[in-house]
TrEMBL record, chain A:
Biological classification of the source: Bacteria, Bacillati, Actinomycetota, Actinomycetes, Micrococcales
Name under which the protein is recorded: Nitrogen regulatory protein P-II
UniProt keywords, alphabetically: Nucleotide-binding, Phosphoprotein, Transcription, Transcription regulation
Organism: Actinotalea lenta
Pfam families (UniProt xref): P-II
InterPro entries: N-reg_PII, N-reg_PII-like_a/b, N-reg_PII/ATP_PRibTrfase_C, N-reg_PII_urydylation_site
Assembly notes: Homotrimer.
Residue ranges of coiled coil: none
UniProtKB/TrEMBL annotation, chain B:
Descriptive protein name: Ammonium transporter
Family annotation (Pfam families): Ammonium_transp
NCBIfam families, sorted: amt
Membrane topology classification: Multi-pass membrane protein
InterPro entries: Ammonium/urea_transptr, Ammonium_transpt, Ammonium_transpt_CS, NH4_transpt_AmtB-like_dom, RhesusRHD
Transmembrane segments: 20-40, 52-70, 105-125, 137-158, 164-191, 211-234, 240-258, 270-287, 293-312, 324-343, 363-388
Keyword Repeat on entry: no
Keyword field: Ammonia transport, Membrane, Transmembrane, Transmembrane helix, Transport
Family under the similarity heading: Belongs to the ammonia transporter channel (TC 1.A.11.2) family.
Entry's localization field: Cell membrane; Membrane
């Protein structure tokens, strides 16, 4: 099993979610996140005082998938999140040792 | 503030209409102080929002009590040399509980209305010293300052025997008494207390701009009581003042936003809220003496001037945290002085300024009033400020400033955060 994590532009979330649903992904966890990469933040001006804000709002998506689905799910996210501009985000995959479904107590791939 | 018996166009017998309007206006002006708490509270960081709002709220507590004890007689009671009223003659307001019916307004309605002005004036100062002030020191300051600075100045400008009133200066609703007074006091305290740690380096962004917008809205609403109520009658003057107050405020918002758009590239919500307050401040002294078009001009000028003035603190290096100087001192001076140019005898005050053929005379009187109040307030506030700093300390310890005054001084935080841990409850009966 794998965990696919994606940090993307907040305004791409709806498209990514639809694309994942269309690709058969049945669940995900979404959270608000802050961060920066090459984009290096932005400036905000309050009563003429300029602030460099390096942490910008992002959305983090986590999806648990079977081993063989990791690559395709990753490419679905990348395809749907891309705008071609700096700051589009990153997607990475981690191995997962075990998963348990809380309601039934199932373990492993059955719990996905 | 007009002497209602002389200039009101309602007959000089007790009027239910006047009294109803002034009691209503008093409630409107009182609401400005909680409104100010939101306006200021939204502009500070999340770790000090409660303290910021409490500095406004506590001035209602302290000043409201002082007002009924010695405040009103000291501001409007038996004159002592044109300088102040006698605080012991009418102490506790026992002499104000009846009204003889010959004045157009009940005695207590005037007491009520004026109380709300004293309350908000001291609250305004707190914006200059955000995030770093000992609460007890602030409480002490409110009581001392209102007694030694506000009551005498209100007497000079608004009591019939006051020396600035007799000079012929126009300050209809408090450009000098409220805004120049509080603005320069804010500067004095910012200097006495010193800059926040990390000022100019660490980000000190407003933590909740919707609060700021809400506060600006409440202030604007209450300000109609502040200005139109200062007619002390439900009459033509109050109506002209109402429209002038709206017109100048709208124009000032536009002035501030245009300045921002040109200078910074974007029109901001903080700029809109600030422009509103700048316009309200500037029209306050002038609302009875200019035409509606004059009010628009005055508001536009105030919006632009204040938008530029808030940058001064960065150049001069004083931490007037929420721009009490840039908005209230500069806006108050702008409105008070522009009367000398824009006043028209067609308006209720009946005075012509320079642009209406009145020459420079009124401008000179306005400047004298403005700088007399400014000088007195600056010197007295510095003395009071240093006295508090030397005796009990005015500033919280560094670690309290880092943690946030809310938790350290008030034992509360405004916002629930993850990681507060399990809550253990103990009920004290």
């Amino acid at each position: 099993m794998k965990l696919v994590c994606a940090v993307i532009q907040p305004h791409r979330l709806d498209d990514v979610k639809s694309a994942l649903e269309a690709a058969g992904v049945r669940g995900m966890t979404v959270s608000e996140a802050s961060g920066y990469g090459r984009q290096r933040g932005h400036t905000e001006v309050y009563r003429g005082a300029e602030y460099q804000v390096d942490l910008v709002p992002k959305v983090r998506i986590e999806i648990l998938v079977a081993d063989e689905d990791a690559v395709s799910v990753t490419s679905v996210v990348v395809g749907a999140a891309r705008t071609g501009k700096i700051g589009d985000g990153k997607v990475w995959t981690l191995p997962v040792e075990d998963v348990a479904r809380v309601r039934t107590g199932e373990h492993g791939p059955d719990a996905l | 503030m007009v002497q209602a018996d002389a200039t009101s166009d309602i007959a000089a017998a007790l009027s239910a209409g006047n009294t109803a309007w002034i009691l209503t206006a008093s409630a409107l002006v009182l609401l400005m102080t909680p409104g100010l708490a939101f306006f200021y509270g939204g502009m500070v960081r999340g770790k000090t929002v409660l303290n910021m709002m409490m500095m406004s709220f506590i001035s209602m507590g302290v000043v409201g009590v002082i007002w009924v004890l010695w405040g009103f007689p000291m501001a409007f009671g038996t004159d002592v040399g044109g300088f102040m009223g006698n605080p012991f003659d009418g102490f506790g307001l026992g002499n104000m509980m009846t009204t003889d019916g010959s004045a157009p307004l009940t005695n207590m309605a005037f007491v009520a209305f004026q109380a709300t002005f004293a309350i908000i004036t001291v609250a305004l100062i707190s914006g200059a010293i955000a995030d770093r002030t000992k609460f007890g020191a602030w409480v002490a300051f409110t009581g001392i300052w209102i007694t030694l600075v506000y009551f005498p100045v209100a007497h000079w400008v608004w009591a019939a025997e006051g020396w600035i009133y007799r000079l012929g200066a126009i300050d209809f609703a408090g450009g000098t008494v409220v805004h120049i007074n509080a603005g320069i006091a804010g500067l004095a305290l910012a200097l006495v207390i010193g800059k926040r740690k990390g000022w100019g380096k660490d980000p000190m962004r407003p933590h909740n701009l919707p609060f700021v917008m809400l506060g600006a809205g409440l202030l604007w609403f209450g300000w109609f009581g502040f200005n139109a109520g200062s007619a002390l009658a439900a009459d033509n003057t109050a109506s002209v003042v109402w429209v002038n107050t709206m017109a100048a405020t709208c124009a000032a918002m536009l002035g501030w936003l245009i300045t921002e758009k040109i200078r910074d590239g974007k029109a901001t919500s903080l700029g809109a809220a600030s422009g509103v307050v700048a316009g309200l401040v500037a029209i306050t002294p002038a609302c009875s003496s200019v035409s509606p078009v004059g009010a628009v001009v005055l508001g536009l000028v105030a919006g632009v001037v204040c938008a530029l003035a808030v940058g001064l603190k960065w150049k001069l290096g004083f931490d007037d945290s929420l721009d009490v100087v840039g908005v209230h001192l500069v806006g108050g001076l702008t409105g008070t002085l522009l009367i000398g140019l824009l006043a028209t005898s067609a308006a209720p005050a009946g005075v012509d300024g320079l642009f209406y053929g009145g020459g420079l005379r009124q401008l000179g009187i306005q400047a004298a009033a403005a700088f007399a109040v400014l000088g007195y307030s600056l010197v007295l506030t510095l003395i009071i400020g240093f006295a508090i700093r030397l005796t009990r300390g005015f500033r919280v310890p560094d670690e309290v400033e880092s943690t946030g005054v809310d938790l350290a001084i008030h034992g509360e935080t405004a916002y629930e955060a993850l990681g507060t841990g399990r809550v253990a409850q103990e009920v004290k009966a």
